[in-house]
Amino acid sequence: MTLDAARAWLAQDPDPVTRAELEQRIAQAEAGDADAQAAIADAFGARLQFGTAGLRGELGAGPNRMNRVLVGQATAGFARFLAEREDAPTIVVGFDGRTNSDVFARDVAAIMAGAGVAATLLPRALPTPVLAFAVRHLGASAGVMVTASHNPPRDNGYKVYLGGDDDGSQIVPPVDAAIADRIADVAASTSFDDLPRADFAMAGDEVEQAYVRATAAIAGTPAAEPPTVVYSAMHGVGSATVRAVVAAAGFPAVVEVPEQAEPDGRFPTVAFPNPEEPGAMDLAYAAADAAGADLVLVNDPDADRLSVAIPDPDREGGWRQLTGNEVGLLLGWDAARSAHGQGALAASIVSSPGLQVIAEAHGLDFSTTATGFKWISRVPGLVYGYEEALGYLVNPGTVRDKDGISSLLRVLTLANDLHARGSSLADELIALAAEFGGFASGQVSLRVSDRSRIPAIVQGLKDAPPAQLAGSDVVAADDLAAPEHGEVGDILRLTLADGARVMIRPSGTEPKVKVYVDAVSTHGSPHERIHAAEQRVEALKEAMRPLLG
């Protein structure tokens, strides 16, 4: 059956690259090649599921891959949903620098227009935050961003936003299921060639310029001698927009990493285009050494995440990459001091519990959400939100999604203010520990080649959680997918007698099981607090490794 499905797919595939690959694979499979048969079974035996993250997967032919046919089906289904939702719907479409992102984006715009949805395509490869901004700025009914963010080079994706009452946030249930139903109807009844197409509008530079102005407005005043900053776009689309925002805010130009400044979907200098991966920041550190820099700031390829590194002579190489939680707490403390007791802070459930302590100390509301900015962005009265995976929402009045460019500017502003006082981000982390306690966090990840293993690993730990970890009793093991815990997600939360916390979940975007470890200490000096919490995190990480198999 899968060979029949492959032949039927071949008949409608408009992409010469995927057509050629599929033709060869079909011929090999028909000749009895077991590898080709297995590859076809994988590509045609299932379908990429449309969910709250839209679509994301490896490029290639078949319904279980990202390709023009799948994108066309998704778009036609989404168009039906929009037409049912409102009269005269509109959409804005953006794309990043990954392989085929521009091709997919043009298909989205043309098919939307052909279905009666007035479509506007952004003029070139731009950051995801610019598309998220454009949905609100243009008053669009919806937005689609063609990106796979920080996934491996062979991946691409389709990210969906809604306007109107959703205010430019990503989709959440039950909308995802409703769209998925309409996509399934299209896939079952309509060939790619038969999907109507029509002309669409092209946006000019005004949308990006408006984003630049709105983002630059959140900066402080540069000091007389601001810190020297090295920046990398990691072969993504952040560079031009970051340069424009930094200039509009009045800061000196960042020193770019030249090898990674231009969009390149091959990501030739990194094993994985994700700042969290080992070695991904090495070229930025080398550039920082050459420039005598005070700070390293790195976006992921679609510029919705931000990594921060600071000088540390005690570390090998002389630089320390801050964790997402360290940056999240620094930005949260910064936001809390500016909120004057009004509004709410929010963090995903796997992020540091430290943000709640900061919120309560400043008289602010606090919300813990399920993972993902689709939830964080919807918190009432939000002034700041973050998740530990390098995602920060510092300007919810402008963008209702994580934004690696506005957060870069807030980090730069904070570093600038500290620099003017003879201080630094490192000193601010010590001050935070003195004020609220030493919070530390860490991760253990298991990457698998077979995604089907992931549910069994997580379920096995739920069925038989450890009674003790690294010398401390596990006093609670909570399945957060259960109704009594609010059905937050497929997460196992282990609470330890010493106040530490361990959380295990499948990644929503990568073939990984992720373990999040958090510990806190309020005893001793700030340095002693941080050291004690870090030591506890390392002990718990080691205790978890064998439990993942």
From TrEMBL:
Residues 478-521 form the Alpha-D-phosphohexomutase C-terminal domain. It holds the Pfam family PGM_PMM_II. Keywords: Isomerase, Magnesium, Metal-binding, Phosphoprotein. Residues 48-185, 210-312, 324-429 form the Alpha-D-phosphohexomutase alpha/beta/alpha domain. Its cofactor is Mg(2+). GO terms for biological process: carbohydrate metabolic process; purine ribonucleoside salvage. One of its GO terms (molecular function) is magnesium ion binding. The keyword Magnesium applies. Belongs to the phosphohexose mutase family. This is Phosphomannomutase. It comes from Agrococcus jejuensis.
